[in-house]
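Continuing the batch. This is chain 6 of the set; chains 1 through 5 are on the previous pages. Same settings as before, nothing changed between runs. Recording input and output for traceability.
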Amino acid sequence: MHYKLIAESEMGRRFALAFERGDELMSTLKEFAERERLRASEFTAIGALSSARLAYFDVETREYIELPDPGQVEVASMNGRITLPRDADPDDPPAERQLHIHCVLSGRDGSTIAGHLLEATVRPTLELFITESTTHLTRREDPDSGLPVLAIGD
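Output for chain 6:
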């Protein structure tokens, strides 16, 4: 993966990332977020993947149900957030970052599959733009679902 800082102001930074064939998206993006100490960022991406693990959250069982690996696909849409982990102290944050990614993937025949992204391998490329905010965002456990949700107003 290669990247470039394309804007910086008192409002935050903006990065362009170019992933290459074989890059593992989640671990590479998480390493980048931790190295750059991103605290509240959002991103979008387009490109293609050779494999992906997606899941659907079942609110009744409070568990993620994995969907079948679609194989080689186009990334029609990918959106995500980078935050501090659950219950992190924003004044003294840990190195770890939390990723939350959803995407829509398109197969050769135009059929789509969508969901919560757990893991993906890039092929041939993925272009990702990150917009950072100077605000700190953390997550808290939602008592109803058990999910780590944004802690806003807590």
